[in-house]
Amino acid sequence: MATVNTKTGQAVDRSILDSMLRRRLFYTPSFEIYGGVSGLYDYGPPGCSVVANIVDLWRKHFVLEEDMLEVDCTMLTPHEILKTSGHVEKFADWMCKDPKTGEIFRADHLVEEVLESRLKGDKEARGQKVAVDAEKEAKKKKKSKEAKAIKLDDAVVKEYEEVLAQIDNYGGPELEEIIAKYDIRNPTTDGNLLPPVAFNLMFQTAIGPSSNMPGYLRPETAQGQFLNFQKLLDFNNQSMPFASASIGKSFRNEISPRAGLLRVREFLMAEIEHYVDPEGGKKHSRFEEVKDVEMTLLNRNVQLAGSTQVEKMTIGKAVETGLVDNETLGYFLARIQIFLQKLGVDQNKVRFRQHMANEMAHYAADCWDAELLTSYGWIECVGCADRSAYDLTVHKNKTGAPLVVREPRAEPLKIEEWQIDLEKKKFGPRFKKDGKTVEAAVDALSQELREKLSLDLEQNGKIEIDVEGVGSGKVELEKDIINIEKRTRVENTREYTPNVIEPSFGIGRIFYAMIEHVYWSRAGDEARGVLSFPPLIAPTKVLLVPLSTHASFRPLSQRLMLKLRRMGVSNRVDDSSASIGKRYARNDELGTPFGITVDFQSVKDNTFTLRDRDSTKQVRASEDEILQAIKSMVDGDETWEDIRKRLPEFTGQDVE
Amino acid sequence: MATVNTKTGQAVDRSILDSMLRRRLFYTPSFEIYGGVSGLYDYGPPGCSVVANIVDLWRKHFVLEEDMLEVDCTMLTPHEILKTSGHVEKFADWMCKDPKTGEIFRADHLVEEVLESRLKGDKEARGQKVAVDAEKEAKKKKKSKEAKAIKLDDAVVKEYEEVLAQIDNYGGPELEEIIAKYDIRNPTTDGNLLPPVAFNLMFQTAIGPSSNMPGYLRPETAQGQFLNFQKLLDFNNQSMPFASASIGKSFRNEISPRAGLLRVREFLMAEIEHYVDPEGGKKHSRFEEVKDVEMTLLNRNVQLAGSTQVEKMTIGKAVETGLVDNETLGYFLARIQIFLQKLGVDQNKVRFRQHMANEMAHYAADCWDAELLTSYGWIECVGCADRSAYDLTVHKNKTGAPLVVREPRAEPLKIEEWQIDLEKKKFGPRFKKDGKTVEAAVDALSQELREKLSLDLEQNGKIEIDVEGVGSGKVELEKDIINIEKRTRVENTREYTPNVIEPSFGIGRIFYAMIEHVYWSRAGDEARGVLSFPPLIAPTKVLLVPLSTHASFRPLSQRLMLKLRRMGVSNRVDDSSASIGKRYARNDELGTPFGITVDFQSVKDNTFTLRDRDSTKQVRASEDEILQAIKSMVDGDETWEDIRKRLPEFTGQDVE
């Protein structure tokens, strides 16, 4: 667990940040008055607002920008669909049970915890400095045996590090082997554990009154989109490529969720399914626009070699060298990075990590995760998978629905092939009720066999073919009843199953990681937290602060409030009796970027001071100028630096 | 089933409308390629967009307008919470099973269906005209015995009509009685049914890997809001009244859903919980603003008398006369009506119906539904219930959490009461381990008893009290160990449990009913449907139609597209080869209010024609004028009539 610093160079103290976020009701454990349920959180007013702003930006950046077709599908999903998609069988984690205490552990997390703890003990024994996570430390002290300062062999250290670097690559058997090899036990009781068993992560329920239709809560929004593929293609006038998109809750029955908002059982996802022709190298018409975007990439082979060393290069170069498989995948990786930048994530805390082979979901052909660095380590916040034709194919095979694209060929395709004609007038009377079976057997003859049979027919005037279930299983056909000829068939239509590139966003994780990135505290006072949301993302854009509760102030703040609301700029009046410094401090914690102070001068000449959250600097100008400046910053047309240059500074009150 | 007409006086043909809505992908049955699941629907691109616009308007109209505290709570809800709230016991419908076929019927719907069918048969036998619902008719022919034209006694007709008028008022025993009395059977097989049994409508699941935490999908968003009451009150600086609000999916495992989007198993709700002091008549500070709003009201007593006769009156009058219980309830009823108007619902197809006593949810003290008239009859789209202090009280009692408001009293409250002092030094040694039990028994003594005991004590120097489980069950206390005195206690703080007024919106039902209200077809052509959404609600605001595929047109439509997008106005270019009439017809079905035609003149002088969907009239003006006119209409500042008056009409092409 590396120490992570804020923009201003302070170490992120998660316990202080967490308590601030809960106090300000960004989020709160669900059902807390009933003791809570791990992995379930509610969002309070500022959290709701930030999430709504992230979703809004997402919709503009992806859906509107590329005319994606947004759909909203149900969360309840019948068993059969998720059986076909492979989720019933494969959407599982490995868990180990302690037979004595009944405790259940997620196997990979247990291995991580124990090996990391041993490595830490080793460092201590070697007299090295160890980064301390105060919260984790406190928990450990309470519940598990003290991590012992025991020195390990250099070779063992290396082995542990290699195991940890590819922890996501292990399945059940590998985890079982590792647990046995390194004698990993229940960290609290030191008891032995049963071998890992698979636990399906979907919540099960029954649809309808008779309980005979089992179903699940969806684990992703994707399946609903795939099932509507044909209708969406129609809606798009058969035009390819195109994308569908969906924003909604999905569910994972996590084995033992920890890590706050980062591992929850119910979460908001935003997913894109971009359908692309698998032929022609999956080019993207707008790749040019992004090719110079600089990316931080961690490739699969580096990880398999036990390292986490990243490379920096443009996405253009990454696609050119084949590190990223194709333009469409590359286009979305770059667009994801631009989106994260707009949200305010710290560019130095973003990397794109390629999945290792065993780590990939059962449907994926390639996958890159956008990971954000937080005090919990590197966290997967966006996945970008190439699901190839997997899903459309399995659903097509199961239902017979034509989940395919049919398009006219520019050049008709000419195919030389052996064709068979049957003389129906004679064929029917001859075979009677067996006619269909015999005809099906004839149709099924391979090209190779047809060629051979045509020679037989020419030489002997008749042929013999196998027809199961008719007579002796052999049927003779004479020249006057069958004809086999090589002809040219012309295909004017091409039919193919599109491949799917799927950028998939975990909004809650992005929300939390982004908050860690914009969090810092005022110099010299750890308790004075600030959330430097970009204006676009901030829950409230403007705080209106009347300096006095005098009656003459109220009409001014009311007027500003209404004018801002009409401009679509969210704002709040704080006319409490708290000191102006306290009122601003409260709003620094809420991340409100701008403050307007209504003072005695305002009552006289209708000028106001405008305060910038991050610098605490102020300018003073007329009502219209102040409102216009705010609108301009909220729309992203100007920054505070621009405003400061063109409006006179104000240094009258200290409102840090 | 009354025939319902469109604005233009045509009868709504639901099968035509439905097929149009599905073809244009407003919605579609979920999992259709797997055969579908009744009661589950997906929303396609235009449906998603309309729903998003409804939600957006809702947030502005309610949440932002009154600074409500929006929260987003989990859908997964542990058993204990819904047990406490009463849903485990009471959130149920009555169902009847056919023991022979295994079919399951919702009891009240079955009674409705059979009695309505008999009434129809009676009308036919009397030679009266019967409104025909083509779709229903077709289904019935397929599956049930033909409704027979049998004349009923006048008295029986009256009985049936009275039963139907209060069908929502019956519980299981009443339904059982009616089914027996009127010999109601399986309409398909004529077989007898088992008596109604309660079926709980919540979807059940298990949270966590060990299956020992049963839970449900929430049936409403309200409980999550109530559980956070204390935190929300803190967030609101202890200030009352205030409201929380939530937008999200809820679930009802309907017995046998029919009626398309109107009865579904998963649905979007928007709910407000407005917390109000129960003392002082539940006044509302903004009631003045709405008191003259004219309402159409159907009161409880009228329904119990077997009628559905409405009354029109202002909400001010309704509150004054006590028909609507209080200002806060009245305020929200009026605000709901204004909201529905903004959406485009037909004012003549809205009524507010008061619930009958047995019909109300278990938590409600009073309830009014905003019902919208559709081809399915009057449909509850918004409920507005007074939940009194029910929920906060049950959760407070169960958990001990202080879900109350504490406020300083303007005047301290003085209470005269009998107080008891125990001489602890003697009391402890005397009772030893029984001390606590005895003390609790003393504390629990009523005021009456204390008064009597104080006399005993004075007279006898000792008293005797009952203490279960200590000694003989009687304990003697002497003057030197106990003292009873009348004193005055001063209470500076008032503590109370707020009452809750809950406006609760079914977004899917509003969506569907509103669409029926804005639907009509061009004169003389039933197949040419139009959806007259207000610009605010329309999925796409502007269609851009280049008259030719000539290369010189493309830069113009691209520029218009980008300019509109920058103005936040959603738009689509249709440069397909279809005729201009066809392209507009397609967009009439999608409800696109405005069309810009790019023609040869545009290429020359940068003027464009702007078409109004409803009138098909056009004006022609410069690019800037056209864009400004659109912006103005989308923002609701001007109407088409305003634009038509100030910009020159264009009659060049026929683009009806």
Automatic annotation (TrEMBL), chains A, B:
<dbReference type="GO" id="GO:0070150">
    <property type="term" value="P:mitochondrial glycyl-tRNA aminoacylation"/>
</dbReference>
<comment type="similarity">
    <text>Belongs to the class-II aminoacyl-tRNA synthetase family.</text>
</comment>
<comment type="function">
    <text>Catalyzes the ATP-dependent ligation of glycine to the 3'-end of its cognate tRNA, via the formation of an aminoacyl-adenylate intermediate (Gly-AMP). Also produces diadenosine tetraphosphate (Ap4A), a universal pleiotropic signaling molecule needed for cell regulation pathways, by direct condensation of 2 ATPs. Thereby, may play a special role in Ap4A homeostasis.</text>
</comment>
<dbReference type="InterPro" id="IPR004154">
    <property type="entry name" value="Anticodon-bd"/>
</dbReference>
<keyword id="KW-0648">Protein biosynthesis</keyword>
<keyword id="KW-0436">Ligase</keyword>
<keyword id="KW-0547">Nucleotide-binding</keyword>
<dbReference type="GO" id="GO:0016740">
    <property type="term" value="F:transferase activity"/>
</dbReference>
<keyword id="KW-0030">Aminoacyl-tRNA synthetase</keyword>
<dbReference type="InterPro" id="IPR036621">
    <property type="entry name" value="Anticodon-bd_dom_sf"/>
</dbReference>
<keyword id="KW-0808">Transferase</keyword>
<dbReference type="InterPro" id="IPR033731">
    <property type="entry name" value="GlyRS-like_core"/>
</dbReference>
<dbReference type="Pfam" id="PF03129">
    <property type="entry name" value="HGTP_anticodon"/>
</dbReference>
<protein>
    <recommendedName>
        <fullName>glycine--tRNA ligase</fullName>
        <ecNumber>6.1.1.14</ecNumber>
    </recommendedName>
</protein>
<dbReference type="InterPro" id="IPR045864">
    <property type="entry name" value="aa-tRNA-synth_II/BPL/LPL"/>
</dbReference>
<dbReference type="Pfam" id="PF00587">
    <property type="entry name" value="tRNA-synt_2b"/>
</dbReference>
<keyword id="KW-0067">ATP-binding</keyword>
<keyword id="KW-0963">Cytoplasm</keyword>
<dbReference type="InterPro" id="IPR027031">
    <property type="entry name" value="Gly-tRNA_synthase/POLG2"/>
</dbReference>
<dbReference type="GO" id="GO:0005524">
    <property type="term" value="F:ATP binding"/>
</dbReference>
<dbReference type="GO" id="GO:0005739">
    <property type="term" value="C:mitochondrion"/>
</dbReference>
<dbReference type="GO" id="GO:0004820">
    <property type="term" value="F:glycine-tRNA ligase activity"/>
</dbReference>
<dbReference type="InterPro" id="IPR002314">
    <property type="entry name" value="aa-tRNA-synt_IIb"/>
</dbReference>
<dbReference type="InterPro" id="IPR006195">
    <property type="entry name" value="aa-tRNA-synth_II"/>
</dbReference>
<dbReference type="InterPro" id="IPR002315">
    <property type="entry name" value="tRNA-synt_gly"/>
</dbReference>
<comment type="subunit">
    <text>Homodimer.</text>
</comment>
<feature type="domain" description="Aminoacyl-transfer RNA synthetases class-II family profile">
    <location>
        <begin position="202"/>
        <end position="546"/>
    </location>
</feature>
